[in-house]
Amino acid sequence: MKGFSPGLSDSIASGIANPPQCRDCGSSSRVGGGLCVRCLLQAGLEPDDECAPELLMSAFAEITLADKNWRLGNYEILGEIGRGGMGVIYRARQRHSRRIVAVKRVLGYHADSHETLARFRREAQAAASLDHPNILPIYEVSESEEGLPFFSMKFAPGGSLQEASSALRDEPRQCVALVAKVARAVHHAHGQGILHRDLKPGNILLDGRGEPLVSDFGLAKWLDTTSDLTRTLTIFGTPGYIAPEQSTGLAEQLSPAADVYSLGAILFDLVAGRPPFLGSHALSVIRQASESPAPKLRSLSRLADRDLETICARCLEREPSARYASARDLAEDLERWLEGRPIVARPVSPAVRAWRWSVRNPKLAVSFAACILLGTVALLRHNQNRELAARVREQALAHHSVGVLPFLDLDAVGPDKAATTSLGGGLVAMLEKMGPARVLLLQGIPATYAGGGSPADLREAGQHAKTRTILTGTTRKTPSGKRIAIRLMDASTGDALFSQSFEEESILRGNSDELVSVAGSIYSLLNAQELKSVSETARDPGLVNEQTRDLIVAGRDLSFRYKVDDYDRAIICFEKAIALEPASPIAHAYLSAALSSRCHFENSPGYLERAEREAEEALRLRPNLPEAHRALAGINQGRNRRLALEEHFQSIEYGGLEYRGASAIGGVFQNLGRPDLALRWFDLARHWEVRRGETDSRIGDCWADLGDDTRAEQAYLRAADLHPEMPYGWLGICRLRLLNRQFDEARKVWAKHCEPLGSFGEVKQMQAQIEFFARNFGPAAELYSHLSKVDPSGGAQFYSGISYESALDRLNWKAEGDTLPASLSERIARRRGSVQTAPDEPDILYQLAVDESLAGQTEPALGHLRSAMNAGWLEYQATLLDPRFDKIANDSHFKEILNTVRDRISSMRAAVLSQNHEQEIADNSER
Amino acid sequence: MNSPVVTESGGEGRIFATTRWSLILTSTDLEDDDQKARQALSELCRLYWRPIFSFVCRRGHSTQDAQDLTQDFFVMILEGKWLERADPNRGRFRSLLLKSLGNFLNDAAIKRQARKRGGEVQFVAWDEWMAEAPSQLTVSRQALESWPAEHLFDLRWAATVVEQALRRLREECESQGRLRAFEVLRACLGAEREDVSYPELAQTLGVTDTTVKRLVHRLRQRYRSLLRDEITDTVADPAEVDDEIRHLCGILATNNNETP
What we know:
heterodimer, A: about 950 residues, alpha+beta, seven-stranded mixed β-sheet, six-stranded antiparallel β-sheet, 18 strands, disordered N terminus, B: about 260 residues, mainly alpha, 13 helices, disordered C terminus
C-alpha cells in the first residue's frame, strides 16, 4: 500500500525517513516533544515508588511559576496551534460545552475604535453565516474583556493543506478532488457576495477525514500583520497565490476571478510542488505574475496530463475575464477531469494570448476610466452568471460610495444650499466619470448635520445613505471673497481622509481644474481596501502606539472635568505620551488645550506661552491639524477674540464641528455682543451635548442679553432642572430679578436655590452683587472684602464685570474730595496701556470706563463706555444700576449711550425672533 | 461470582479499585452492572480507537472504508454481546480486541456487499476525539510501511497508553495551575538522562538545583503511577501490568529497518 493520505490516517502516525534513535534504548518511535515511547513505557517498570498527586503538588508549591488562567471570552486557551502573518491561532476549550475549538484573534493594531470593532464583527458574522460542508464553520464572534475581538471556529485536526501538501504530491487525483471541493465552497461564498481574496494552502484546513475546510473568508485584512500599508500598494493575500490584478493597486474591479486565480495557483502548487511564481521577496513574485505567463504544469510534474495543465492555465490567466467565469465552472471542469470526461477549457493559441495581453497593457491602466471600462465590459461579456456580476459590481459601488452632507455656511450658521448644490453636483459628475462610484446628495436631513456634525451623526448619515464615506464642508466670507473648505470622512469612524480649502469660488464651477484634482484625490482614496490606511488620524504615531494611545485617551478624559487637579493630571498624561512619541501632532495639540484650559482656573502666565508653543509644534508636525487650531482658539479666547474666532473656523474647516467648538464659538460671539449669532451656535452645540443641559444656561444668557426675559427664564429653568448640582440656572434667574430691581425676590431666589451650592465662587459673587446693586453698602462691603481676600484680582469675569477691586473702591468712598487711591490711578494707567494694544476688546474698554468713572474722569469714561458698547458690551441695564458709575450717571450722554444700546438690542431681538419664525415655517414645509 | 466493588478507576486505594477491564469482564446481567460495564467499555474504545483504525488501514482498506469498518466494529462491541463470543480465557483487553478485530474484518469482507452505507449516521465523532486527544506519534517510515498490521496495532497501542498518561499528568498539573511548570519539566520524563540539565531548569523555574531534582523525581513518580493506572485499566489483574509493559517494550525494540 502506498503512503497514507492526509487526514485521519495521519493521526495514526507520521512516518519519517531516518528518524533519530533514542540514545538509551535505540527505539525510533517518539511522541510529542520528542519523547521516546519505549523509554516512557519502561519508566513504568522502574522500582521507584509511586506517588500520589498531593505529593507532586506539594513539590510544585515551591515553584512560583504559576499559570494565569488564560481566558478569552468563554474559552480557556489550551495552547497555540500556529503563528505567523495571520496572527495567532489557539486551541481552546469552550467553557460550557467543553468542546475543543480553534480561536483566532484580531491583532491589537486594528482594535482601536468602536467602529472598527463593529465592522470586524459585521464581517466576521458575514463569514460566519456561510453554511457549506467545505467552509470552516465559525461558531462565535466575540470580544475579550479588554475589548479585543476574536472568533472561534471548528478545530480542524488535520492541519492545513500546507502541511499535507508533501503527502499529496504524488496523488494528483486527490489534489484535484480536494480543489474541486474547495472551488464549490468558494462559489457558495461568492453567491453570498463574499470574496475570499486570500486563498492559499494555509487557509485550507483539513478535518479528521481529510475533507477540506476553507477558512478566513474576507477576513484577511483583519488578521494580517503587514500593517505598513502605503497608499499605492495595498496588498492583501500571499504573493504566489493572489491574482495579479489584486496587487497592482489600481482601481480594482475585484471579481470572483481573483479567487479563481488563487484556486489555480493552489492546484498548481499541490501537483507541481511549488506555486507558479517564486521569488526572493513579495514584490518580485507579484511583478512576475503580472508580467509573465504562468509556467506550464507539465514542465514541473510528470503526473499531470494535458487536460490538467489546461485547467490550471485557464485559472492562472493574467486577464481575469479569460479565466473560468466562476469557481463553480472550475469545479465542474475538475470533476469532469476526474470522471475522465472531456473538459470545457481550451488551450489558448499564442496569437490570442498575445492579443489578450496587449489589451491589459499596464501603460493603458494609467487612465482609470479605460481600465475600468474594459474590465467591466469584458467581465459582463464573459460572465455567464449575471447575478454574480451584479453582486460584485454592487460591492464595487459600495466600495466607492460617497454621501454628501450639506455644506455649512459659517457666517449664517446654517446650510449653504447654493454651494452644496453646485459643489456636490460637480463632484458627483466628476467622480462618476472616473469609475464605478455612487455619490449621493443627502436630502431632507436636519440642518444640524450640515458641515459634518459629530461622529455619531456621520455614522448615521453613512448608514442611512449606505455609503462608505461622507463628504461635506464649510463656506464663509473673507475680506478677499469666499473661502470654501471640503472634507471627506470615513463614515464609520468619522476620521478625516481628505481636507482642503480654497480661497476662490472657482471650485464651485463644474469643470474647473481644482474640481478635477479634488475628485481625483478623492477617487484614489476610495480605492483603498481599508480606509484606515489612508486616514491621517489613524496614522498619528501617538495613536498607533498602544501605550501612548491609552495615555492620550486618558488625558483627554481628564481634560473635561471640573477640578484643577484633573487638568494637572491630564497634562502629565500628555507629557508622558509626548516623551514616548515626540512626533505625535495630536498629543501636542491636546497638551496645548489642557494647558490653556487650566488657565481659566488659575491664572498661570507661563502656561499660556507653553500652550502656544505646543500648538505651534503640532502645526509644524501636521499643518492644518484641526485640534491645534482649536487649541489656539482656546488660547486666544480671553485676549483676542477675533483671532480666536478665526482659529475656531479653521478648526471647523479642517476637522468639522463638535460640541465644544460650537459652544466656544457661541461664547466668543456673546463676548463680542452678538447674542443673535451666539444663539445659533449654541443651538448647534446643544444638538450634540454630551450631558443634557450644559448649554441651556448660556442660551439663557443670550436671551437675557437680547432682553427677552421670558425666554431667558425658560432656558435658565431648564438648566436648573437638568443640572441641579450646578448653580448657573438659578444664578441666571437671580440676575433677571436683580436687573428688574426686584431685590427682595433676588435675595429669596438666592437664599433658596443658590446658597446651597455655595462652593461655587459665582454664588458668593451674586450675593455680593445683589447687595451692591440694592445699595446695601454695609453688607456689600463685607462680602466684597471677603471675596477679595480669596482672590484679590478677581470678579471681572462674572456678570456685570464687577472686579472686587473696583467694587471696594466704590464702597470705600468716604466723601467728595477724597484723593484717589493710588491703586486706582495705577489701574487706569495700566488699562489705558492695554487698550492701546487691544483697542477692540469690549471688556477691557468697559473696565477702563468703570475705573475712569470711579476717578471722576467723565469725558474719558464716557468715551470708553461708548467704545465698549460699540465693541460689544451689552449689559446696559446693569450699567444703569451699577453704583460704580454714580459719578457720571447724571450726564446726558450717559443715558444717550445706554439708550442706543437698548435700541440696538431691540432690533437684534426682533430680527432673531422673526428669523426663528421663518425658520420654523421653512422646516415645516420641508417635512 | 461476586460483583466487585466499583470505585473511581485508578488512583489510590488500588486494593479496592476495579480496573475498567475487570469491571467489564465481571459484569453480570443486572441492569446497573451492565450499564456501568458498557460505560467502561465505551470509554476504553474512545481511548483506543487509533490502534483499531490503524490495523484496519494496514489491512489494505481505504480511509473511507476504514472509518466505516471501525465504526461498525465499535457498534458490534458496544451494542452486541461481544464478550460472550470472545475467548473464555479472557486475557487482556488489548489482545482480545486485536483478535476480535481480526475476526471481524474477515467476516466483514463477506458481509460488505449487503451492508448499506448509511452516510450521515455517525456515532464516532472523529474530529472531536482527535481534537480532545491529539497524537503526535512519529515512527520510521519503513516501519509504517513494512510492519504487519498486528505489530502496528501494538505500536499504536503503546503510544496511546503513554500519551494518555502524559495527558492525565498534564491535566493534573493544569488543574493546580502548574501547566507552565509541567511544560518546562516534561522533557525530563522520557528523554535521555544525560540531556537533562538541572541547572538550566532550575534557572527557568527560579528555584535551586535541589528543588528541581526533587520536583523531577516527584514528577517521574507521578507519571509512573499514571502510566501503570492506564495499563491496569486494560488488564484483568494488576499483577499483569509489568508483563504488559514488557510486551509493548518488546514491540518497540525492533525498529528501524528490521522486520520482526
